[in-house]
Amino acid sequence: MKILDQDKKQGQITVRVQDLNDLWSLYNIIAKGDIVSSLTQRRVVMKEGSKGERKVMRLTLKVEDVAFHEFSNRLRIKGTILEGPDDFVSYGSYHTFNLEINQKITITKDEWMRQDLMRLKESSKLATNFVMLIVAMETGLANVALITNYSHNNIATITKNIPGKRYEQSFRRKFLNDFFEDVQRLIESNVETREISLIIISGPGTTKDKFVRWLKEHSNLDLKNIRTIHASSGTESAIFETLKSQELAKMRKNVKIIQETEKIEEVLTQLGKDADLIVIGFDEVSKAAQRGAIKQLLVADTVIRGAAKSKKLEIEEIIKNVENTGGEVDILNTKHPAGEQLTDLGSLLGILRYKF
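Predicted structure:
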């Protein structure tokens, strides 16, 4: 995200959207009641009875709703019109910005929160449009998930009854090949419709390795983008297990979902070792932040997005105290398992430097 202009007195920041990460960041920054201005298209009826024509114009809206559409690469911002060409719009009527990559937008807030400014700066550090397909498989069972920096979608479960080893090998092999074909078709259909950055085949034993050899013989997929990783099963839980693997750890610098998974693992490990070094909830976290005891603060994005101003100010104070005393702050995406786990733990959590 490129910040083009900033007027602190007016509370205005103008940015250019450079990639999908930026749209996700703006989804979490722009809130109901904010004022946004951008070039847009609006249908204008010049003659009664005509269908009208679409005209490009600059409009200013008071925001009522924000929706992130990952698969169409756009952010929809709905609001009432405050400013625009007098000849073409009536003030107070509704309009929706369909914000896309390379567009500029000016955002005006009564007060810019620390966490909002932090998101603007952090957005440019992530891998652009990162998409990973994970296939967790064992004999006769495969679970497939499509994972980006913004979402974790379990898209399919494939099951096949594979005869046991006591059956004739050719008979057993036929069922196994049918199973491989089903998984192959699912992978290929996703590769055709999405730009997949990486395909991970994980699971126990040799099934995953046999499947990769099958792909070499029967598919035109680019095998350079396929990796195999050990996991304990072919179930949905193995997908999260794969995200925690050491093999993916080296990608964490540019892939937010891997960063977030590691942070939650650190929390769970600490809870097992010494739960007294973890504080959970507004009251406990706020008290620890005031004392400068928090070295790592984790905040679920749903705590901030859509919260009342008074609650946002409370979070702002906590974040400020943590940062001013040398702590780190991370806002986790609740559309991923790591963010879901944080929500289950209380949505606001701090790892302490010391007990108090």
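Summary: The first helix runs from residue 20 to 29.
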